[in-house]
Amino acid sequence: MNSNQRQGAFEEQPASQQQSSGDVQVQGEENSTNFVNAAGDVRIDQSNPVYITSENITFQHRGLDEVDPEMMKQIVREELRIAHTEYGDPVGEGLNALTDLMQVPEVRAAVITFRVVFEAACDQIDVVANYKVLHDLLHTLEFQCYSGIVQEAKRFPEDETALDILMEHELILQGLLGEMQQVAVRETIATHEVQWLNDLRTAQTELHTAVDTLNVRCLQRTIWLLNRVLAIQPSRINTNLTGAARALRLTGLTNAMALIAEKLTSVNLDQKKLEQFQEGVEMLTALDQRLAALVMGHDYGCIPVMQ
After folding, report:
1. Residue 124 and residue 39 in contact, taking contact as beta carbons nearer than 8 Å
2. Do 232 and 122 meet the contact criterion of CB atoms below 8 Å apart?
């Protein structure tokens, strides 16, 4: 969903709910006031510091820079011991349930209050998702295409079986290139970030020529071009993905959704839809914690951010 499609999804906020600075005031616990600005940030009252917990490990977010690296690694390892969970379906179902619940005026009013948070989060999620797709496609290219081409090159062109397998890899490369090109035209991806697709296009042409004419030099050039892409681009995309994941303020979104869920408990609503929404809030909170652990693990050299 792009920004144009989202525009108009939420009504304009009443002037009485807007701060002079452009911030939206969010009432949290007693004696605590948080703010959500137009960028989707949640500025938390420092009298109520955020805590990151994993099993029995807890530390104050304000002291993050002072945390010992070994403690950080332990936190990450503890968090990642938790079995991998599919977050997408419950979160998606929760948001769909919220959309249905917005037919109720009280629900719609609560959602409109957090319009900027939802829109900013959606934009940031798009950025992360697009980088993640490119990463996964390059991973597939390396292990389901490039490795096989290198292996069959040893027997090409004498072995007919090698020729057949290379023809299959040509189809795989063609399909992967098509998927990457679809991602490359999305508005969150800058043109200069995907210029390496030109190498993949040339590699596809060279591989087709090699198979069609039994040309060893064309096959060697195919391998060289693919290797050049795979030696550089996964690392660059990993860096971009890590930065995008770090900028993804899921905490702001989870805080907003949790406050909405709290408000909805006093409204007579479809209980099934309400339970779906509440489950979505819980799963998004879990995703936020896991993503934080992955980013910290990347920063402290424990793990790659992309899993």
Report:
1. no
2. no
Q: Which residues of 78-107 are buried (b: 16+ CB within 10 A; e: fewer)?
A: ebbeeeeeebeebbebbbebbeebbebeeb
Q: How many CB atoms lie within 10 A of CB 113?
A: 21
User: How many domains are there within the chain?
Assistant: 1
Beta strands 24-27; 33-36: pairing state: antiparallel
Tell me the three state secondary structure of residue 31.
Answer: coil
* Pair of tokens at residue 41: 């940030």
Containing domain of residue 216, as a range?
A: 130-244
Whether residue 57 is contained in a domain is answered as no
Q: What is the pTM of this model?
A: 0.65
Residue 293 covered by a domain: no
Segment 134-193, tens digit of pLDDT = 999 999 999 999 999 999 999 999 999 999 999 999 999 999 999 999 999 998 899 999
User: How far from each other are the two terminal CA atoms of the chain, in whole angstroms?
Assistant: 24
- Whether residue 1 lies inside any domain: the answer is no
Identify the sign of the CA torsion 289, 90, 29, 27: positive
